[in-house]
Amino acid sequence: MRKAHSSTGMAIAFASIAAAQSLDDLCTVEYVQASLPAANYLLGVVPNVDSVVASTVTNASVTAGEGQIGGSGFDFCNVTFSYTHTGLDDTINVWYYLPSPDQFQNRYVTIGGGGWAITSTNTDGSGLPIGLPHGAVSGTTDGGFGSWSAQVTDVLLAGNGTMNDTMLLSFAYRSLHEATVLGKELTSNYYNNSDFYAYYAGCSEGGREGWSQAQHYGDDFDGLSIGAPAMRQAFQQPVHIWGALVDTVLGYAPSSCELDAINTNLTNACDGLDGVVDGVIARSDLCRLNWNANQSIGAPYSCAASTGGGYGGGSGAPGGGAPSGTVTSRQIGGGGGSGTSTPAINGTVSAQAAALVNRLLDGVVDDEGRQAWIWFQPGAGFSDSVGTYNSTTGEYEPPSIAGSYEADWVNYFLNEVDSEDLDISNWTYNNLRDVFLQGMRKFSDSMQTTWPDLEVLHDNGAKVIHWHGEADPSVPTESSVWYQNSVRQIMYPDLSYEESFDQLNDWYRLFLVPGAGHCSPSATNGTFPDDILGNLIEWVEGGVNPTLLNATVGGGPLEGTRQDICSFPTRPQWYSNSSLPICVYPDQDAIDIWFPALTSIPVPVY
Ligand SMILES: *[C@@H]1O[C@H](CO)[C@@H](O)[C@H](O)[C@H]1NC(C)=O
Ligand SMILES: *[C@@H]1O[C@H](CO)[C@@H](O)[C@H](O)[C@H]1NC(C)=O
Ligand SMILES: *[C@@H]1O[C@H](CO)[C@@H](O)[C@H](O)[C@H]1NC(C)=O
Ligand SMILES: *[C@@H]1O[C@H](CO)[C@@H](O)[C@H](O)[C@H]1NC(C)=O
Ligand SMILES: *[C@@H]1O[C@H](CO)[C@@H](O)[C@H](O)[C@H]1NC(C)=O
Ligand SMILES: *[C@@H]1O[C@H](CO)[C@@H](O)[C@H](O)[C@H]1NC(C)=O
Ligand SMILES: *[C@@H]1O[C@H](CO)[C@@H](O)[C@H](O)[C@H]1NC(C)=O
Ligand SMILES: *[C@@H]1O[C@H](CO)[C@@H](O)[C@H](O)[C@H]1NC(C)=O
Ligand SMILES: *[C@@H]1O[C@H](CO)[C@@H](O)[C@H](O)[C@H]1NC(C)=O
Ligand SMILES: *[C@@H]1O[C@H](CO)[C@@H](O)[C@H](O)[C@H]1NC(C)=O
Ligand SMILES: *[C@@H]1O[C@H](CO)[C@@H](O)[C@H](O)[C@H]1NC(C)=O
Ligand SMILES: *[C@H]1O[C@@H](CO)[C@H](O)[C@@H](O)[C@@H]1NC(C)=O
Ligand SMILES: [Ca+2]
User: Fold this and answer.
1) N or C: which end of the chain has fewer CB within 10 A?
2) CA 442, CA 435: separation in Å to the nearest integer?
3) 408 is catalytic
4) Which atom number of ligand 2 is nearest to the Cα of residue 73?
5) Cα 78 to averaged position of ligand 3 atoms, centre (Å)
6) In whole angstroms, what is the distance from residue 146 CA to residue 133 CA?
7) 26 near 75, Cβ under 8 Å?
8) Percent of the chain, pLDDT > 70?
9) pLDDT for 46-75, tens place per residue?
10) pLDDT tens sequence across 221-249
11) What segment(s) does the record annotate as region Disordered (predicted)?
12) Which ligand 12 atom sits nearest the alpha carbon of residue 291?
């Protein structure tokens, strides 16, 4: 098995490690300075030796999260330093946790960010500590944004009309690669050990960052754990406009109460299609084939007055409480369907609301009805469409887009204006399609992150575990299915569907997590991955190909029961005599439902 790194070595570092093996001995500014990569180890990158800060941390705890394990009793060296690029007077900060020598297990991992942040520095399983339970050095970067908590939108524009292209590319893919190359060389020098494996782990924007590395720098890693990637940004952010736009174009903004009633009907109708009635829609593909919102017309609803807090999302659909650093619509600022007071409401599901939900689930179309993109799975709720109550008129209005990630995309990235406003009240469906196309033209080599040829990564022997909650309301689940299919078709053009999946599954697997939300569990009785990086390590280092992803039920009567996750395209199906699902190949129509022809987009969408 290939190892990740070959060291150029550093005499000073090696001189001191022989006598110094404890954490206290290694975790000094002098020793870390001596372990720094040399100037131009990565051409054009010059570490600032004087910037090194190193401090010992002992008995640290890590909280599990995002499908990664936690633990306690971790001792490590907490290191930061900065570097500059030749010819630029810039400062990029990088941050590493280096386990004590007795806890180091010959692994390195780069950690991604979330939302518009290039890094997550939390103590839970979404930040730098991810590596500690696996004895891995963890590394991350501030991208040169000026602070660890800065968002790319803070630095993307030098002024209205002037994009800071350096910051764009830093965020898009470059700075994480630099943090990785520097981190691997630091690891090699610090432990006097070039014989270790290199990994990547991230979810949401961190997932997109993982694909950005896999696509641009296929040599960097032996394995990548990529969750719910916010990739294909030309579509990913604006797809959240679809909910409000359909309200606007159809002239009907439903209350959360009415949408909840539709979602309840959907859940009741689709829950059992997977063979077990447990409140989890494990077959959203069958739901799309078997249910449409017309079935819910006439269903009664009644909700008490609310003083704010917004949309609860109904069963199986998370509302506002997304974890920090995710790409949920309308989490920035005060716009949209949260925080407003609504009066008591009752009624029966209208034909208008049903037409609207059918339009949402069928995905984005243009004014001629031609398909432009997909949408979220049934079970993910309809939060983007929830009307805002106007106490002056007593009517529900389409939700405001202002202050959302999608407004940021249109303003900062596409139009290059520093603004949180976006008024879509005059838009038609073509405006949204045109936003997709504008983003594709402008960011195909940066934020789009869908390059489908992973030959370098594959030749390098690297493995990828790509996972996605099937009820994710922030990044459409189908977005992941779509990308995997693109890779399969580009890399195995001459093989049949099953033959090409056989080849692909040797090194890249996709797991859809039934009922799960965005990088987190959602449905009460749903299962969730135990230890994704652990499965990846077993695959890379032990040759154990994860035909199933280890996972455990998080609540309800089966809480704590192992319920592993099927590798796409196989899908879970329960039979009367089994308590665990069987992974089956779906019927052709349950495959085809994922792949509509995008007749409104004149170029391939990967
Ligand atoms: C570094 O590691 C190599 C190979 O393991 C070993 O030969 C060498 O003595 C080590 N050097 C120091 C200074 O520990
Ligand atoms: C280490 O932390 C744990 C809590 O995680 C605590 O119970 C224990 O006393 C600590 N040990 C030491 C030596 O501080
Ligand atoms: C690690 O060091 C940074 C500054 O270099 C500091 O802000 C942070 O709190 C430290 N983390 C821990 C866990 O001590
Ligand atoms: C780009 O952003 C960085 C970080 O904020 C800044 O140092 C640099 O001067 C900016 N470049 C331009 C051309 O504005
Ligand atoms: C969880 O499953 C149990 C029995 O299998 C069921 O009674 C309960 O209603 C389910 N919970 C939800 C939220 O559907
Ligand atoms: C729902 O009902 C409307 C009005 O009767 C009809 O036009 C539409 O085709 C139906 N939708 C589906 C998916 O059956
Ligand atoms: C429904 O709302 C109306 C007012 O809009 C109210 O008079 C009526 O009592 C409500 N019915 C129920 C069952 O809540
Ligand atoms: C409510 O409706 C009134 C009348 O159309 C309008 O002037 C006002 O801006 C609306 N309020 C909000 C918060 O949209
Ligand atoms: C930049 O453009 C936005 C949108 O037009 C405007 O609101 C803002 O005031 C402008 N900022 C500056 C500094 O001119
Ligand atoms: C929408 O169109 C109307 C009529 O053409 C125009 O008066 C209004 O300014 C437009 N609103 C926006 C936000 O463009
Ligand atoms: C996954 O489960 C298998 C079988 O129970 C076990 O051998 C393996 O170690 C587990 N892997 C992880 C990462 O938990
Ligand atoms: C919606 O769900 C379907 C399938 O479970 C039922 O047959 C319908 O009766 C239900 N619709 C309403 C209005 O309750
Ligand atoms: Ca079910």
Assistant:
1) N
2) 11
3) no
4) 1
5) 6
6) 30
7) no
8) 91
9) 999 999 999 999 999 999 999 999 999 999
10) 999 999 999 999 999 999 999 999 999 99
11) 316-343
12) 4
